[in-house]
Write a structure and sequence with these properties.
319 residues; alpha+beta; Multidrug-efflux Transporter 1 Regulator Bmrr, Chain A; 2 domains; 8-stranded antiparallel sheet
């Protein structure tokens, strides 16, 4: 009997020793993902709660909390995540478990070659001295790690699509419209649709007078000037070189690479899209060859509903 008790005691001692050896006093939980997206774009997206509303797994969101849950809290498998601090390429989050335990975690965004990023998500759990507590903390750490891995997969799928990061599709292509006639005007306010199409009409009348043919959509660039004025330039592709007259002048566009995006919406939507295209250039260290311009696909005079306007943005770029 004594041998049996001694054996049981030895097993118990070895089991407890194993717990202390295999489960450290501080458990580091981490997950990692490599993403084909620049660090600036990753940080800008993940540090914005409004973007979390889009990429965070919807089927696991908890909007039925008995308390008025803050808009910046997101629940996945009964754990709640909330951004608390934002530093350059680092986002700190609180992970609140179902039992009320709150854990500090951080997402670090690292630069990888070829405009890619690495996302490293990490937190630390204090296991304590009690062996039972260590076991429970180890189980909790495994759950947290699994959730981190799941959420990083959702982040990965979201961030690798440019339309999610910039709010619009972006591609690099060329254009066949290289022979143009153009004209400019300086205005004291952002150009109205009437003012834009009045200038387009001037060009169309000139083209008709020269018995030339229009070969593409009207093109538009609006640039703010220092004295609270705007310079508007419109151009129209034609089938042959025209000399121009008065304020109308010929313009040649060198065939090359363009960053292109198609936008649906009015002037505000287009202005925001142009800002997003600037961010794309900055994020990817691209250099503009010339001013960007809009292709006015929809005739805005004939279609007063701005939600139906289709515009293509073109920005010449060095590869």
């Amino acid at each position: 009997m004594k041998k049996w008790l001694w054996g049981l005691a030895l097993i118990l001692i070895l089991s407890i020793a194993g717990i202390y050896i295999l489960i450290p006093g501080r458990i580091i939980v981490s997950a990692f993902s490599a993403i084909q997206c620049t660090p600036n774009a990753v940080f800008r997206t993940l540090s914005t709660e409004d973007k979390w509303k889009i990429w965070f797994p919807q089927e696991n969101r908890d909007y039925n909390s008995t308390q008025a849950e803050a808009k910046d809290k997101f629940t996945y498998k009964r754990d709640t995540y909330q951004i608390t601090n934002k530093f350059p390429n680092t986002i700190e989050l609180l992970i609140s478990e179902e039992d009320g335990t709150v854990i500090k975690s951080s997402i670090n965004i690292l630069q990888l070659p070829e405009n890619a990023s690495a996302i490293h998500w990490q937190c630390e759990l204090v296991a304590g001295l009690n062996p039972i507590s260590r076991i429970f903390q180890y189980v909790s750490a495994q759950k947290i790690k699994n959730n981190m891995t799941d959420l990083l997969d959702y982040m990965h799928s979201f961030l690798e699509k440019k339309e999610n990061v910039y709010g619009m599709s972006i591609e690099i292509a060329s254009t066949k419209d290289t022979v143009l006639v153009a004209t400019k005007s300086v205005l004291s306010a952002y150009p109205s649709t009437t003012e834009i199409y009045d200038l387009i009409a001037v060009l169309k009348n000139y083209i008709a007078k020269q018995k030339a043919l229009v070969t593409g959509y009207p093109m538009l660039n609006i640039s703010p000037l220092n004295d609270n004025k705007f310079e508007m330039m419109v151009a129209i592709p034609v089938n042959r070189v025209l000399e121009g007259e008065n304020n109308i002048f010929p313009k040649r566009m060198i065939p090359g690479n363009f960053v292109i995006s198609q936008i649906k919406g009015g002037s505000y939507t287009i202005i925001q899209a142009e800002k997003q295209m600037e961010l794309y250039f900055q994020d990817n260290s691209k250099v503009a060859m010339a001013i960007p311009f809009q292709y006015l696909i929809t005739d805005r005079v004939k279609e007063p509903d701005t939600s139906k306007w289709i515009t293509k943005l073109y920005a010449p770029v060095f590869r």
